[in-house]
Design brief:
Number of strands: 0
Helix content: 55-70%
Oligomer: single chain
Distance between the termini: 146 Å
Number of helices: 13
Length: 248
Amino acid sequence: MSEDNQAAVEAAAQDGRDFVTEADLNQAEAPARPEWLPEKFNTPEDLAKSYSELQSKLGTKEEDIRNKLMEEIQSEAFADRPESAGDYQLPEIVDESMAVDNELLQWWSEHAFENGYSQDEFQKGIEMYAQAIGSNQPDLEAEQAKLGDNAEARIDAASAFANKFFPQEALPAIERMCESHEGIIALEAIQEAMKDGNFAQDTQPAAVLGQADADELMARPEYWTDSAEGRILRDQVSKIYQGMHGGR
């Protein structure tokens, strides 16, 4: 008798029967149920299938939670920024006419928008930049005070002198120089030197200058341009030739 048939006979005997049914045979042929298998699963395969489905559902849920969390974080971070980079308002310290097509302001607006900056943060960045730039500018009132009680008259006189004796291209540099009281004093010294003739005498080319010096000046690229520096170089060469030929 096979093991399966023996198991069927034993199952029938346990039920008090002296005959074997088909159900007894089927049960005997079925594999033994593992003790670790939960009751709600018929086979280990059912348990594996259920676990796989659960794992898939949990993975999907985690991804949904992660996406929702990221959306909430982004929404919170960008809550105070305007609808677009162009909606930031410039502070009063910025001249709106000068802000048109300003690449630096355009970059700052786009940077602020991409990083979710609020209007206050955008404005604070501009104010900090303006403060840093302003700290490098001279204190005009303080410089004027150093010139004494007649400061305004001295500044006006220096401005008139500069406009009369310096070429137009050089005036921006003269203006920067005169932002300090030392620059005004320097211009006044030039005026005094011109009055007594010392300035003209001291600035004549030295007698030792000759053809080699003229050639060196003429070799400079600026000599052949119409710039202020080019005109100065040509004037120096002319004076060298005049000195070489006894002022003729």
